[in-house]
Amino acid sequence: TSLAAMTKKYGVENQSDRAHQLIRDGILTSHFPQGMQLNERMICEQFNLSRTPVRYAFARLTSEGLVKQIRNIGVFVRKLTDRERVELMETRRVFEAGAAALVAEKASEEQLAELLALAADADAHREAGSSEPLLARDKLFHQKVIDLAGNSEMARMYTNIHAIFLTLTVNGKANFRTPVFSHSEIARAIASRDTEKAFSIMWSHLGEALNSFRETLKNQQD
Asked: If we measure between CA atoms, which residue out of 216, 140, 148 comes closest to residue 177?
């Protein structure tokens, strides 16, 4: 009998999924802040879980980069260094520029129309100077680009990278300056089906965000 079959038979698989989701949500909402040690017994009691699913969850969260296990000491919510924060932003830039090119190549006309509408909505909020709604729409637009790329592996990895970045950076308070290219300009480049142009404009758009983020980190050190 395989391990997968055994865990499914005895319900460990479902419980480990539940444990993973509960702990992950706790990290993403800062209920478990970065650097905090995750006590196995405390989590079992808090969420009414047994130890085996929690250990499965810890292993999975470690592979996702949200927690760090230190041998003979314990499990901790990951605390990023400035270098790791920048590296996550760089990785996001590579993923999204590549995704923009894929969307230009693969998306239907209906999907492109949806992307253009999302971009126009995000730009309208930027012009209105509404920061929190803009951040929500910015996230929605960029996630849509990833989704429309039609690559499940890319989507899975990007979702995890973005979750780590938003949760474990500077609490989302970096003051990014207005990028060179608007969301609508990115969407139009993608809709033109020019893959090189789509890649280039998204690359430049996120390059501005990356430079702004580096400046924010530098100012915090001064």
From this structure: 216
Higher pLDDT pick, 6 / 65: 65
Neighbours of 92 (CB within 10 A): 19
Instruction: Return the bridge partners of 70, or none.
Output: 74
Is the Cβ–Cβ distance between 49 and 15 less than 8 Å? yes
Which helix (H) or strand (E) covers residue 165, if one does? helix 152-168
Tokens of 44: 């079992």
Q: CA–CA separation, 6 vs 175, rounded Å?
A: 50
Q: At what angle do helices 195-221 and 183-191 cross, to 10 degrees?
A: 160
Residue recorded with tokens 């760089």: 90
Cα 188 to Cα 104, 192, 216: the distances in Å are 10, 6, 30
Query: For the segment 134-186, what is each residue's pLDDT rounded down to a tens digit?
Result: 778 888 999 999 999 999 999 988 888 877 876 655 444 444 455 667 899 99
Spatial neighbors of 57 by CB under 8 A, at least 6 apart, are 16, 19, 20, 22, 23, 24
Residues 128-139 have pLDDT tens digits of: 665 667 778 888
Closest among 184, 72, 62 to 120, alpha carbons compared: 184
